[in-house]
Amino acid sequence: MNNGDLVKTVRMNYLFDFYQSLLTEKQRNYLELFYLQDYSLSEIAETFDVSRQAVYDNIRRTGDLVEDYEDKLRLYHNFEQRQEIYNKIKLNISDETKVMKLIQQLEELE
């Protein structure tokens, strides 16, 4: 798996975590098997007795759907910002002024 595929897989895993409750059972099953369990399209198709193309189309549409949810709700984006600020706090824990500024940034996030 190349770096671009790995980045996409990690992103989709996070988006799945945030938005899975908004998906149908079939959409959840396909994404979970493909991105979390690392099943191939053929393995998923065999599991659900559908064509490989049907699995591919569903995963692509569902991926677009969770990206659309992210564009509107920004849960993953805000999570990343919080993580970044949290890591800066850990690095600057001995500098009270910096820590207070970082805490303020956290509080200002939507």
Automatic annotation (TrEMBL):
Gene Ontology MF terms: DNA binding
Q: Which InterPro entries match?
A: RNA_pol_sigma_r3/r4-like, UPF0122, UPF0122_fam_protein, WH-like_DNA-bd_sf
Q: Which domain of life is it from?
A: Bacteria
**Keywords of this entry:** DNA-binding
| Described function | Might take part in the signal recognition particle (SRP) pathway. This is inferred from the conservation of its genetic proximity to ftsY/ffh. May be a regulatory protein.
- Membership in a protein family: Belongs to the UPF0122 family.
* Name assigned to this protein: UPF0122 protein N9R04_08355
Q: Which species does the entry assign this protein to?
A: Staphylococcus marylandisciuri
Species classification = Bacteria, Bacillati, Bacillota, Bacilli, Bacillales
